[in-house]
Input
Amino acid sequence: MRLSRSFVPTLKETPAEAQIASHRLMLRAGLIRQTAAGIYAWLPAGWRVLQNITRIVREEQDASGAQEILMPTIQSAELWRQSGRYDAYGPEMLRIRDRHDREMLYGPTNEEMITDLFRQSVKSYRELPQNLYHVQWKFRDEVRPRFGVMRGREFLMKDAYSFDLDYEGAVVSYRKMMLAYMRTFQRLGLKAIPMLADTGPIGGNLSHEFIILAPTGESQVYYDAAFEQIDPASGEFSFDSPSDLARFYQRLTTPYAATDEKHDAALWEGVADKREGRGIEVGHIFYFGTKYSEPMGLTIAGADGKPVVPHMGSYGIGVSRLVGAVIEASHDEQGIIWPDSIAPWKAALINLKSGDAACDAICEEIYHHVGADVLYDDRPDRAGVKFADADLMGHPWQIVVGPRGAAAGRIELKRRATGERSDVTVADALQRLG
Ligand code: P5A
Output
């Protein structure tokens, strides 16, 4: 994309309303704009990052055997009455009436809807286990929306829902998701710790939050210092082997970590070096047995012909929150430092002298080769402005084309994360950017 033609409204000044680095940088780098309290429009750079994160989340969900669907954002209140949550959910739920005065709501989560879809179509134990997921906007009328996309009212979530015949099966599904999550966060360049957690309005008796340690995080957390060293090395485990999954679960849940000091108090006894800190919750998984299947009348025929009530779990990733979380974990004074896996563009192509024949020719050549993955700064602005914007936007690479080098067919490559620069030929640069 040519920067002169693109909608990337960067800001020089620090927006007064933003209290944490990721919120400030998302506004300054032109990723998002607020349209109402806790509701954001995603501009081209932000939308590209959100799509890149979604792609990684999707690849890892698919690899675990989950199947993608898409459920609506608007739901009928009737379904929530069946589960008993319509009244219980409280003011966080955005309740709507249609023209026929029917009660509707903007979904804060989809346990009821998926249970309804499942009970309409699945009749036999042979069809289980299943795990269905979607990536869809949610609305929660948070009392205090803040920190930009970190705690929005409208936000993008990946939510998956598993159905198993019994507790043992459900535990395998739960561990599969834990493995998929660790791989997902690793690919996003994040170190997430699964911590035993409260189940809140989703319910159930087994739950883990995935926490990125960060001083600006909203969650208070307690963990064994050993976690700071742990390497999840999730590659060696297979989704198809329940014993692999058990080993993986064991490795990730000892040493011990929790979001509430009171949890399983005895488990802290073996912890030599207990730490307390703040964290960002980027995912949350739940096993809740028959909490929804039972009241909503979901039964299937078991192997002996008798009715079975499936055991369920649900598994959330805060996709839009992750954009903020990645920035919290990866930025400096100058701006964002995108991991290669999710950067909106691989590189900024900086023309230090737009209008100079040699500079323009080299830039056009690179632009045509690398194409949509490069953001070509073809503006007539000063070099300082272009460097500052490239640092702010956080492209993993900067390709700097100046008149002296261009005359000799050479350009400079700068790695944003390390600041390392190298003087290379155009061909070398093209090869390195692949
Ligand atoms: C699990 C999937 C659920 O809703 N039902 C379906 C379960 N869990 S959760 O913990 O309530 O949410 C899952 C993840 O969504 C993110 N999240 C938010 N992100 C931005 N703004 C918000 N207001 C917000 N609320 C939740 C979190 O990452 C959470 O882990």
About this structure: Residues 167-187 form the longest helix (21 residues). Residues 272 and 396 are 40 Å apart (CA to CA). The domain at 3-336 is CATH 3.30.930.10 (BirA Bifunctional Protein; domain 2).
